[in-house]
Amino acid sequence: MLLIPATVIVLLAMAYPVIWQLITSMQQFGLAQQFGAPPEWVWFDNYVTLFSNPTTWFVVLRSVLFCLAAAAVTMAIGIGFALLMQATSKPVRLTLQISMLLAWATPVVAAMTIWNWIFDWRRGLVNWLLTNLGLPFNGHNWLQEPLSFFLVALIIVVWMSVPFVAFSVYAGLTQVPGEVLEAAQMDGASPWQRLRLIIVPIIKPVLGIVMLLQIIWDLRVFTQIKLLQDRGSIASKTDVLGTYIYQLGVGSSDFAMASAMSIFVLLLTIALSWAYVRNLIKEDDES
């Protein structure tokens, strides 16, 4: 009974924008409707038009590949840092935790200002270092080509996401019984065997929920990509789902198409996360 008010507020706050998007996606809703003109119902015509365009599918494929790559790299590095924090002394652990906390707490726009300077093609730190090492990177524009653009985007997104993964996994590692690890070590288990056969099964629920959150966040990444695009890349070659919706809505004033794409992103997010949710429900039923 005490949870009902909070639950109702959350459901209303989530339901209103979703219902508004769903209704708008079935209407002819553009700039004129923003100023009071009545919208015309077109039902599923917006979806047919949107997904008949090959560009839409290129953006979807690009977004999913970038999402899975970013989530995998983030999880690998984050787990590595978590294991490092567990294995090092307290001063080293505190230094790592403070450093990652500062990186995590830095506002995205402020962090992107620094990253844009690091990869700037005229006076960027990366080009300066590589040029001094004798490599031909003087005046190299990292954001001009899609492959190098997404490499830079991957570095930035991973850098911003690793602290969350590292702290979450480290919290899970603190729950692993020390006597179990000591017994395994006495029985001759190697560090890799202890990690694979003891630690990972115990913290599997933590790894699952963190991986799920990373996939959702990386699929909906927007700010980092948009700010990198504003530095001079070709948006049509570097759009992901978030920036594509932005271009449809704000750029073209076609809010119906943007709403239809938003509904698709919602369904895609549910599809990607359904496997984990199904396992949660199965484990809950078994317990």
Automatic annotation (TrEMBL):
Coiled coil residues, start to end? none
Pfam families for this protein: BPD_transp_1
Q: Which UniProt keywords apply?
A: Cell membrane, Membrane, Transmembrane, Transmembrane helix, Transport
Domain of life of the native organism: Bacteria
Question: Do the record's keywords include Cell membrane?
Answer: yes
Q: Which residue ranges does UniProt annotate as crossing the membrane? A: 56-84, 96-118, 147-173, 194-217, 255-277
Annotated membrane topology: Multi-pass membrane protein
Protein's cellular compartments: Cell membrane
Q: Which CDD domains match?
A: TM_PBP2
Q: Which family does it belong to?
A: Belongs to the binding-protein-dependent transport system permease family.
Protein name per its UniProtKB record: Carbohydrate ABC transporter permease
Per the UniProt record, the source organism is: Leucobacter albus
Traced from the root, the source organism's taxonomic lineage reads: Bacteria, Bacillati, Actinomycetota, Actinomycetes, Micrococcales
